[in-house]
Amino acid sequence: MTHWRVAIASGGLLALLCAGCSAVPSDPRAVLEENASVIDSAAQDPLEALDAAGLKGTSATGSIGLCQGPPSPGVDYSAAITATVGNDPVGGFNALAEQLDATGWTATDAYADAGIDPSTPAQEYTRGPLVLSVKTGGFSVGGTRYGADAMNLGITLSDHCVRVPDSTDFTELHDLNGEIPPRD
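Below the sequence we write its predicted structure tokens.
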């Protein structure tokens, strides 16, 4: 009898937890398109800040990605920006940080406990619902460093995951992927 009570209580707890899960919007694609529009527009400020900071080789792309798994599948839209900082990632980072501060981005303490190497700075910024992650120094695989002269920026929304129906074919959303051109 005790096992039945545990099973019923567990089922009730699961129902309560799932009651807080986000619902599938009536038109998930429309929500993703709106998120893409907001992020693509917001990407213009970091692109301009990189240019004002004297960092070259910038490019920006937007892409759809998975952000939840079964039983509640979800997708999100994010932007990635790259720039070349050359042999001075600290100088490039500081120049960009000054420009971001001037355009209303606020530094967070998200990386405060991450043990960031001072020679390859990283910082997270927010502005309203937008989250901007800035990292320098590339990455290492098998002792080989790749992208050491690059700065990578990522832009998402703080509430970025859009729940979609279980039967969603994610390839139907990939037409939202693509280059984000700078303002004219």
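Residues 2-19 form the longest helix (18 residues).
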